Amino acid sequence: MRLILLDCPTPARQNFYPLALSRPIWELRCGMTTLGEKLIAKLGARDVAGFVPEYMSDVTRETAAWPINQVSVLQGDDLLLVNARVKADEFDVSPIGPSQAAFDADGNCLFAKIAREDAGKLNAESLETFLAGARQTLPAAAGEVALWNYTWDLILANPAQLVKDFAAAGRSGIEGIVEEPTALRGGSKDVFIAAGARLHPMVVIDAEHGPVYIDEGAEIHPFTRIEGPCYIGPKSILLGAKCREGNSIGPMCRLGGEIEESIIQGYSNKYHDGFLGHAYVGEWVNLGALTTNSDLKNDYTTVEVSLDGKKSIDTGSTKVGALIGDHVKTSIGTLLNTGACVGAMALIAATGKPLPKFIPSFAWFLEGVVTKGFGKRKLYETAQTAMGRRKRVWTPAQQAMWDEVFRLTEGPRMEAVKKGRRALRQQTG
Questions:
Q1: Which residues contact 367 (CB under 8 A, 6 or more apart)?
Q2: What tens digit of pLDDT does each residue of 262-285 get?
Q3: How far is CA 311 from CA 152, 321, 324, 342, 417, in A?
Q4: How is 344-356 classified by DSSP, letter by letter?
Q5: How far apart are CA 358 and CA 409, in angstroms?
Q6: What is the DSSP letter of 391?
Q7: 362 near 379, Cβ under 8 Å?
Q8: More confident residue, 172 or 94
Q9: Are 162 and 245 in contact (CB under 8 A)?
Q10: Is residue 208 helix, strand or coil?
Q11: Rg of the chain, C-alpha, whole Å
């Protein structure tokens, strides 16, 4: 069987902005692994391919270990096409058996199991024609398909998913270096410290209420407290951090201050004091000293999030912090509102009070208003510098992708810029 992960350019994928502006949904994290890794593990797939929006295909090819947007993978084998939004834990479709498919009300494929002989009868000129044929000819699958619907679904599910993933990993014990004195609360069976990881003296690992997994090459500095369930990714550094329960930290992050029930995709900095709670932070983000987000409203009502600066969506939860896209930079003292959505490549200067709940991608938030700043060229130069500090390269494919993201996000950005100009005129009389 060949597993094909689908992240097609549908309206539903916009529910994962700003994080999905620059990566496939299957690369988003929940627990110790990505959504794609969970599906691959659940299905035991060894032959994998994927389809993404065309504008990010070249960047995805730079990092993916399998074919991207190649229609040739639609022929020559038994196929299982699965939407990247499908929840792996609840996906119980056997890869063996007759062909069947599930589509939502808008015609988007949730999954399609296609025997080789049936696949050969479908028009594989493009993914679109192939799926259209599958919808018309394959028997409809019975039952509901459980899906991730918004980024905050991942945040809210993260603590429980960490526990499941730790159990699935089946690893415990100390393979790295632990310098004394270090305190361990809870059972040692609920802690794994990988080879190459190092814990300095005066570190507290609290696994009483959930497991702690510290991956290869991670470094934990003195006076850090890590509460489980928690995952610390490869080569990440915690500098006297108060790492409370429910955190998933990707690779090569630099973190201090207080962090609670948050997901950080990777390669991001929060060196200094400040609170990050029930948040999802992308890659190459730098949160200035004392940057803090609210994750609970004073009246304890459910949090609403605006992903486009207009329509607000009720999350159904009283605890949702900030959604922060890739390459965001905040100044010292930045205060992010409950349910804030900060677009990719945004540059923010603090105002001394909570910021608007929506800041568009590529916006410069200066003197309390959204501006175009010095444009995307300066932002690209900063991105290239930040990536170089982690020995990563800003490639032509990266720039082409971000040029398209700039175009895709132009509408909300220009509306915010016009609103900012009007505000400035009113201030100056």
A1: 349, 351, 424
A2: 999 999 999 999 999 999 999 999
A3: 16, 18, 18, 15, 18
A4: TT-EE---SSPPP
A5: 13
A6: T
A7: yes
A8: 172
A9: no
A10: coil
A11: 22
Q: At what angle do helices 376-388 and 396-408 cross, to 10 degrees?
A: 140
Q: How far is C-alpha 139 from the geometric centre of its chain's CA atoms?
A: 34
What is the value of pTM for the model shown? 0.96
Spatial CA neighbour of 414 closest among 322, 323, 314, 309: 309
Hey, which residues does 305 pair with through a beta bridge? Answer: 313
Instruction: Render the burial of 376-399: b for 16+ CB within 10 Å, e for the rest.
Output: beebbeebeebbeeeeeebeeebe
Please report, to the nearest 10 degrees, the dihedral formed by the alpha carbons of residues 190, 194, 200, 203 taken in order. Answer: -20
- Separation of alpha carbons 88 and 157, rounded Å: 13
Q: Which two tokens stand for residue 247?
A: 């955190």
pLDDT in tens, 16-66: 999 999 999 999 999 999 999 999 999 999 999 999 999 999 999 999 999
Q: Are 95 and 80 in contact (CB under 8 A)?
A: yes
Residues found in the chain? 429
Q: Which amino acid is at 78?
A: D
- The residue type found at 216 is E
* Two structure tokens written together for 328: 């965001």
Token pair in block for residue 293: 């987000």
- Copy the structure tokens of residue 188: 């040692």
